[in-house]
Amino acid sequence: MQDARETVRGAKLYFCSQTEIQERYEVTMSQIYLEMNHVKKTFGELEVLKDISLSVHKGEVVSVIGPSGSGKSTLLRCATMLEKMDGGDLSFLGEKAAWEENGKCVYANKKQLKEIRKNFGLVFQNFNLFPHYSVMKNITDAPIHVQKRDKAQVYEEARALLRKMGLEDKEKAFPCQLSGGQCQRLVIARALLRSDSAVYIFDEAASNIDVESENDIMEQIIALAKTKTVLLISHRLANVVGADQIYVLEKGQIVEGGQHESLSQEQKTYASLWQAQQELENYGKSEKGGAQA
Fold this sequence. Notes:
6-stranded mixed β-sheet, disordered N terminus, 293 residues, alpha/beta, 26% strand, 13 strands
């Protein structure tokens, strides 16, 4: 693995070097932050997740990829307890959130789940910003009124995050006055301000925005991955090539697992998706170049 992987659009993904990967592996293999075992989920007669097992260790960047309809979003919703599993086990930092008992999935009590949920922060592809709130109020409202944190301290932390996200001049702006990329950076800032979570989970966080904004968002995720554990759901493989572990989901099953270098050589689902995306993006670049000429 190279120290930096270059995407087809020229953005470099510095998740970690080969040496750092080895150090992480040796130090953190016993520290499992998120674990799912034999997870099943059905909607009526449709079996969406079939015996899914995966783990995310401390300090890792783990990616889940797959074609549309493969079950990625359902997997994430089950992992974050937004959707109830029909079978299997789920735990965060060793704390059981759900487990199978007598053929059914049983969840911990409300008090336990509330504590477990503090272990992760979520960033969705849908911004879910309050349109009538300013940028500052969107990210500070929950910490102040729900978490009952000190207002002055929250505002200080919020301004620092807005500077980090390149939004320091947008404090009084409203979501309708922001670009898609700026809204997504705001959502990341909101997740970071709400809690200092052990695991941050991104659901297509760089989708539906322009190329430049996508690269900006990935830079923020990469920076976060230097100090946090990250689970990244993505349809675009160029955004996950530097991940410590990539799970390939197809028709509700994990069909491959590993790192980009090995997966791209195996001539299976990942390699096929990678080649197709490269061809499509290279075609787009050639068309753009021809138009400019």
